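Predict structure. Input: Fe-S cluster assembly iron-binding protein IscA, 101 residues.
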Amino acid sequence: MLAITNTAAEAIRTLTTDAELPDGGGLRISAPDPEQGLELSLAGRPDNEDVVLSGDGVSVFLEPVVAQVLDDKVLDVQPVAGPDGGQELRFAIGVQDRPEA
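Output follows.
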């Protein structure tokens, strides 16, 4: 299952609050054109077939195919250089750490 870091959860909470989404709203991850990557958007509710991850006051909605692709991944937020030379925060997908045997 997709893991969500505390930093990503805080970013999602901020985005959904700022957008004044209804209770139950969250971040939706879809793949309208899988060759172009994933698309993140805010949604007031999940689509009927979405896999819903919720906890820590945030919800993430995943298209079924996206849920499969991200099953062993982690959603995080990382700083990147912005066009003005400053730093921006962006969502990033990484590989989950494997527990040592």
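The chain has a mean pLDDT of 90.
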